[in-house]
Every structure is written in C-alpha cells, then in structure tokens.
Amino acid sequence: MSYNLQPFRLDFQYGYLNEKGEIAIKPRFTNANHFDKDETAIVCLGSKYGVIDKKGEWVIEPIFCSLYGFKNGFAIASINFLNYGVINKYGEWVIEPKFSSIQDLDKNTIMAASTECFGNKGLIDIQGKWILKPSFKSIGAFKQGLAAVELNGKYGFINEKGEIVIELRFENALYFSDNGLAQVMIGKKWGFIDISGNVVIEPKYKDAKHFMPNGFAAVKTENRWGFVDKNGKIVVEPKFDEVYYDDCDSFMLIKSNNKYGYMDKNMNIVIEPRFKEAGIFNDRGLASVEISKKCGLINRKGEWVIEPIFDKIYPFFGSYKLTEACIKKHAVFINEQGEIILKIKNMHGKKILKNAGGEMIYKEPSDKPSVDFLYKNMINA
Which of 193, 195, 191 lies closest to 158, judged by CA? Predict the structure, then answer.
C-alpha cells in the first residue's frame, strides 16, 4: 500500500500531509481514510462519501451515504441507507442497490445479503446472483472454505455453495483457523472442532481464542488465561489476566497483575509485564505503551524507540514518516526520531497548524461545515 499521504484533522475538517509534514490536500472533508494501493482514498464531504486521488480531485463524486473499503476493485455502497449494492473503482454499479444489507465475506467474491431489514441472510456472488437464498439469521466470514451460520439460536457451518456441512447444534461458533480447528460453544463452555465437525478439544473453557500460526490458542479457565496446543494439552498454565494477539505478528500481548508485557511465538515472556497500557506490535515492529503516566514507542526488544514523554502516541502506520501524539494537551505530529514537526494549537477559538519553529502554516477555514449543515444533509439524504 502507498501511505506517503496521511490524513490529519484540524478541528472538524480532515486533510492530508506528505512525509515532510507539508499540507498536500487542504482540510475540507468531514472524514478521511488512508490512501490505498490504487492511489485513491475514501473521504466524506458533509454527509456523503466519495473517492479522491492524491491531488484531492474527485475520482468518484460524493453521492453515497455509506461506502466501505475497496477490495479487488469493488466496494459495498449505499445512496440512502436503505438499499445496498456494489460499485467498481469508477463508481459504476456492479450489483444494483437492491439489498437491505450486504456483508463482505470473502474479498467481495462471496457476500452475505438480505432483501428485508433485519431479515435472514443468504449468499450472493459478484454479479448479485443468489448462491443461497436468505436462510440464516447470521453468516460469518469464510475460513478454510467454511462459514459459521446461525438460525433459531443454534450455530453450524456451511460451505461456499451454501450447503450445510456441520449441523447447527452449537450455542455459538466462530471460524476455522489455518490448522483446521474452530471455537464452538456447547453447554456454555468453549471447545474446538475440526472441519468434519468432530470435537477435538472438549468444551470446558470459559472462553477461547482462535489458534495462531504457531499452533497454540489462548483459553480461559475461571478468571485466568493460558494456552493449549492442537491436541488440547496445556502448554502455558492459566495465569494471565488478559491475552491479545492477531495473525499478523508473532508477539502476544499479555496482562498480569494489571501490567502489560509480551510473549513470543515460542511462548516465552520476552518483555516482562511493566506497562500500565500497551498495544499490539504493528507491521513495523513498534508498539505504543504507557509507563509512569507517559507514553512512548518500543521495539520487540523492549527498547525505547520514542521516549515516553507524551500523553498519548500512535504507532507509525505503514510507511508513514510521521505519527500523531499528544503533549501538554496539544496534538502534534512527530517524525521517526521523536522530533515534533507540527503542532495543532487553539488560538482565539480557531485551530491553527504550526511547524516546529512556531510558524503558522495553516489556519482553520472560517466556513467549516456547521452542525446544522451536517444535520440537513443527513435528513435530506
């Protein structure tokens, strides 16, 4: 993805900065998303969504009440909050807006859809044709070719043809991990089944998370979290207050005695719990942590990359050269060395943007959208 333009907010309006901290697109949007690999970004003007290029010019005019992120050149959209369809990157309807809801399940190639508000959901393809007529109250994302479905309070799994392959007999069910096991609830306890529906790990846990690529999953016994392998064998005794992880990073965030630390994929504690607050490591190997009421960024060795001098700080996103932080109640942008590049200050009721030398480089427009303007646009949508 291309991230060399990043959104920033000046009071009620969003614009974009380049990697030098210069304004590339002036603040004029009521919301703004990151630029995608096709060099476009979804933004909101007033109460309508459209798509702009890196010059701030419209690629798709802002006519949509809702517009979700593009995947494979397609996005779910609505022009009135009542009828949903799918558009291509030119804003043309690929699937006419005739559904009351559409939910992306598999990179826009298979979607869950409903024709009635709060009605049952079925499956449609990218042409909008029914693969499965509305049959279930809910349909989850497809993983390992299967998706969890719910009907009358019971859960099971269907394949991409809409066929039931695991009967609806569970009180809850999530999704299959790469190792072919999924969390299910039986008798108010969580366990795991394989893709044939056989119980592999008995349902005896208060809670359970999905299996990670390292072959382990977090399970909760009473009020503590531990880890099991694919056979259900305990590999780390339940001793943590909380556990967080995703499949994008090999480090897990753990909480013990109200302090946060980190474990690696081999289940070794590599950064002892010592932080009051902490986040998952991002794709650049950085995590935001708080210690002694101040925030900074650390690497996977637990070393300070940005010293804890800020009231709040966000990890650098993608290839961004700047990130947002807060110090002494002022919003600032800092570079990778922790130096303040831009400051957003409030002067005489107006938000202004200053560089590190205190020079004003942008003042909030006086004609920002009023609450009345936003309200009228919403009710007239």
Answer: 195
Judge whether 159 lies within some domain.
Answer: yes
In a domain, 362, yes or no: no
**Phi, psi (degrees; rounded to nearest 5) at 38:** -90, 15
Number of neighbours of residue 274 by Cβ within 10 angstroms: 12
Could you list the residue range(s) of the whole structural domain that residue 220 is in?
140-240
C-beta atoms surrounding 71 within 10 Å = 14
Residues 193, 144: Cα–Cα separation, whole Å: 13
Is 184 a domain residue? yes
Rounded to whole angstroms, the Cα distance separating 322 from 334 reads 5
Quote the CA–CA distance of 203 and 185 in Å, as a whole number: 7
| Cβ-based burial of 359 (10 A; exposed 0-12, middle 13-18, buried ≥19) | exposed
Give backbone dihedrals phi and psi of 213, rounded to 5 degrees, phi first: -60, -20
320 domain residue, yes or no: no
CATH code of the domain covering residue 231: 2.20.25
| H or E element at residue 291 | strand 287-291
Tally of domains in the chain: 1
Is this prediction's pTM over 0.90? Answer: no
What does the buried/exposed string (b/e) look like for 197-212 if buried means 16 or more CB atoms within 10 Å of the residue's CB?
Answer: beebbebebeebbbbb
3-class secondary structure, 193: strand
Beta carbons within 10 angstroms of residue 111's beta carbon: 27
Burial 302-313 (b: 16+ CB within 10 A, else e): eeebbebebeeb
| Local structure of 371: helix, strand or coil | helix
**Whose CA is closest to 286, among 272, 306, 268, 271?**
306
Contact in structure between 220 and 169 (CB atoms under 8 Å) = no
Q: How far apart are CA 268 and CA 252, in angstroms?
A: 10
- Split the chain (381 residues) into runs of 10 and give each run's mean pLDDT: 76 90 94 93 97 97 95 93 95 97 85 94 96 97 96 97 98 96 97 98 97 96 96 97 91 97 96 97 94 97 96 91 91 93 74 75 57 37 36
